[in-house]
Amino acid sequence: MLSKQDNHLLTRTGPGTPMGELFRLYWIPALKSDELKSDGKPQRVRLLGEDLIAFRDTEGKIGLIEEACPHRGTSLYYGINDGCGIRCMYHGWKFDTNGDCTEIPSEEGDPKFRKTIKIKNYPVKEVKGIIWTYMGPEEKQPEFPEFYWMGLPVENMMSERVWQECNYAQVMENDLDYVHAAFLHKALGKQEVGEGILSTDLGIDPNHPLVRNPPVKQDVEDTNYGKRCIAVGIGNETDNAFMEIHYIFPFYTFPPRFEGEDGMWHAFIPRDDYSTWSWDVQFSHNRPIDVQANHDRRGLKLDEHFKKQISIENDYAQDRELQKTGNFTGIRGIANQDHAATETMGPIVDRSKEHLGTSDLPIIHMRRLLLQQVKAFQDGKENFTLVNDSLKNLYSAGLYDSNQKSWQEAFPLQSQFKTKEFEVKSK
Ligand code: FES
Ligand SMILES: [Fe+2]
After folding, report:
1. Which InterPro entries match (predicted)?
2. How far is the CA of 101 from the centre of ligand 1 (A)?
């Protein structure tokens, strides 16, 4: 349970809010590279409550700028993207990718005026098919985070972004929730699974350790990237299944995985306080990924604005017959099941009314870290720093080992991920 004040602090991320200003100090995945073509249609993208557009100019450079034209506010989304800039359809003012105004046709005789006009723009970086941005103050821009999958060949990965209709925090909480997999994602019969693919469109195989039984033990430990959330489940007669979820501050995760399965990385970026850009990167360590199989498994059907066609508006196409015979929810697709669970809470769930149990331990730790960090930030303290030496080697593993072993023996945290405090304490 959270107080109403803490729930407010956790969930409000627009400009000027404490959490919003803290989030602006981290790199954000904004768009997929293939959304933008040179001199092609611009793309709208709302991030942290700000309405922006992105465009790729004649030379391939990307601009991420405020949507409203600084002249009188017309949307630049409708503008003309050519000749190394975007021109407003209303009176023809033109802007380049740096946000500089390069032409005002009606004020040709007054170049000084033109030079005073600037549109808000944010720096971008294009990495492995994703366009990232940094929306904080220039002097605080951190090193670009080098996640493990960025070191893999591009054919080993795929990414998807989707507009999810609720606050980022409840989407991220779902990702740290081990127990829901045993219910929400449970397929009632054995599933046909492809190489490295965890599950099909009906849900997760009932024999998978995530589904077979809820974890018998959970624990959370502090790390130099955020939190490592450990779960121990029953594997077979002699072995337990040891699993981990990594919560990387402030809004990235690696959900649980076992050897041989494709890896998964998520980011939950507030679109505004009532909706989220949910990013999903699937990656294989050692072979090209099956893009179609992964899309099918997730089951999302998106329109050109990345809005879902299977949504709360049509009850997620729930099939009551399928619920009796096929899977726990009667909803097809792992992602649709997750969206149904989190969006039906309402856009911002009232955490003063919830009743958390021991199964919610990772969520409690994640909230605690976010609230502790945002309060420290309000007090003018330095924010949490991500270290690439650590990030480069981090992903979720998961293994079977003797049920006589504790998780600390079977599945210890590698020393490179330990916090300085941890090192001091264990000396
Ligand atoms: S409003 Fe854009 S040029 Fe006038
Ligand atoms: Fe899920």
Report:
1. Cholesterol_7-desaturase (IPR050584), LigXa_C (IPR045623), Rieske_2Fe-2S (IPR017941), Rieske_2Fe-2S_sf (IPR036922)
2. 12
Residues in CB range of 182: below 8 A, 6 or more apart: 210, 211, 212, 213, 214
pLDDT digits (tens, 9 = 90+) for 386-396: 999 999 999 99
- Whether residue 183 is found in the same domain as residue 309: yes
Would the pLDDT of 198 be above 80? no
Collapsed DSSP state (helix, strand, coil) of residue 22: helix
Question: Is 165 in the same domain as 307?
Answer: yes
Indicate whether residue 150 lines ligand 1 (CB < 6 A): no
Q: Is 69 in the pocket of ligand 1 (CB under 6 A)?
A: yes
Ligand 1 atom closest to the CA of 79, numbered from 1 = 2
Pocket test for ligand 1, best of 67, 76, 88, 94 (most atoms within 8 A of CB): 88
Q: How many angstroms separate the CA atoms of 420 and 412, rounded?
A: 17
Between CA 266 and CA 47 the distance in angstroms is: 16
Asked if residue 259 and residue 125 are part of one domain, the reply reads no
What was the pLDDT predicted at 298?
84
- For residues 86 and 94, is the Cβ–Cβ distance under 8 A? yes
Identify the pLDDT of residue 259: 75
Does ligand 1 have an atom closer than 6 angstroms to the CB of 384?
no
Q: Which residues surround ligand 2, an ion (CB under 5 A)?
A: 338
Q: Identity (one letter) of the amino acid at 264?
A: M
Alpha-carbon Rg for the chain, nearest whole angstrom, is: 23
Better-scored residue on pLDDT, 150 or 206: 150
DSSP single-letter state for residue 81? E
Phi/psi region, residue 332 (left: phi>0; alpha: psi -120 to 50; beta: rest), is beta
Same domain? 229 vs 345: yes
Instruction: Quick: pLDDT tens for 360-383.
Output: 999 999 999 999 999 999 999 999
- How confident is the model over 199-231, as pLDDT tens digits? 778 888 888 888 887 777 999 999 999 999 999
Q: Which atom of ligand 1 is closest in space to residue 93's alpha carbon?
A: 3
* 71: CATH: 2.102.10.10
Between the CA of 425 and the centroid of ligand 2 the distance, in Å, is 35
The residue with greater pLDDT, 297 or 289, is: 289
pLDDT tops 80 at residue 116: yes
Count of H-run helices and E-run strands, the chain: 12, 20
